Structure formats: structure tokens, C-alpha cells
Amino acid sequence: GENVEQHPSTLSVQEGDSAVIKCTYSDSASNYFPWYKQELGKGPQLIIDIRSNVGEKKDQRIAVTLNKTAKHFSLHITETQPEDSAVYFCAGGGGATNKLIFGTGTLLAVQP
Amino acid sequence: DAGITQSPRHKVTETGTPVTLRCHQTENHRYMYWYRQDPGHGLRLIHYSYGVKDTDKGEVSDGYSVSRSKTEDFLLTLESATSSQTSVYFCAISASSGDTEAFFGQGTRLTVV
Q1: What is the distance in angstroms between the Cα of A10 and the nearest Cα belonging to chain B?
Q2: Among A49, A35, A47, A48, residue whose Cα is nearest residue A102
Q3: How far is B113 from B93, CA to CA, in rounded Å?
Q4: Among A38, A99, A104, which would you mutate to test the B interface (most chain B Cβ atoms within 10 Å of its Cβ)?
Q5: Is A33:A88 a contact under the CB 8 Å cutoff?
């Protein structure tokens, strides 16, 4: 079935450094790739998404890149701040099952 | 914030008892979902609904049932709770399935003792 793999499971960076989280997906028909941020005690919230017709999208300090040939996409956070500390989930959607399939999450810790 | 309310927010129940979790939305979105979140597994889809009285199974549906009698409410029932169903449960809604933003509720922490 469809699968989305996410790495790393935990990531610790110093404030001001960059953070990169990577995901791979199995369904070549997937065409929608959102990233969610989950703060402690809250539900996940969308921070950026990308569709298969573009290779990169940027929103201030956050960017997502997509390589459809290799079936992987990545989240890039530059100039990290302590408030970026959270769990981040990637997901793939629009594929054969027409549902969002989530990765297992990355716990990002930004050290002051 | 999207208008999604989950109730209760916390519940402790005994093994073998039935439990119902409620999700209420005010966005009039067609699609509603129930996920469970467990360490190391991320968010796994239990059941989803694509309209009133239209539901289907997700990847971890065993031991769960759902009902949607009106657009705004989606109920998740554990017929006979087991310790393996201890988890955090999230409801989500979306205007279409799989290719647009899903909005999540605040979650329900369920403990089965």
C-alpha cells in the first residue's frame, strides 16, 4: 500500500542554524505534499504545502522541495528559532487512495 | 482556526467498556477523518467520512466504528475498549479528499486501564 517514510525521527540544532527533514513516498500518483507542525498538546497545523507541478516553494524561513522522479520531498527551515521546536509531519496525498498518508514525524529541538 | 471541537479532551476508561468520541465542525466540510497518534507511528487513519452516512475504513479500523448522521458531527466508537487503544485521537476535516489542507482538532487523550 501507500507509504511515506520520514527521517530523521529526532533533530537537534542550534538557534540560527538550518534544519532539513526528508520524506519519501511510494505512490507515484501522489500529487500533493503538505507539511504539518504540531506543538505540544495541540493538533497538527499546516505550515506549507507543494503540488507536483512545482519543484520548490518558499514562505519566509520555510521552504519545501520536491523531486518527483526520485519520489522524495524535503522541508528546509533556515535561521531556526526556539519557537520552531515542535514535531513536524510530512504527508503525501492525491494518490490511488485519495487520502493523506502521514510520515512518522520528526521531533525538532532548537537549542538557544 | 478552523471550527473543530473534539469531546471529551481527556478520558480514562476501563477495559471492555464502550467509548464514544465526538467531533463537531462548523465549517461545513464534506470530509471528516479520525486518526490516532502513537509514538513511532505518526498519524494513522482509523475511519473517514465523505458525506452524511458515507464512511469507509482506514488503515487501523479494527475495533472501531464510526457514524455520521449530520454534516457537522462525526462519532468514533470503541465497542469494547482495550489497552492497545490507549492513544491520542485526532479528528480532521477537509473540503476535498487527499489533495487539500486538512484541519485538525485539539485531540482527545484516551487511556484504557
Answers
A1: 11
A2: A35
A3: 30
A4: A99
A5: no
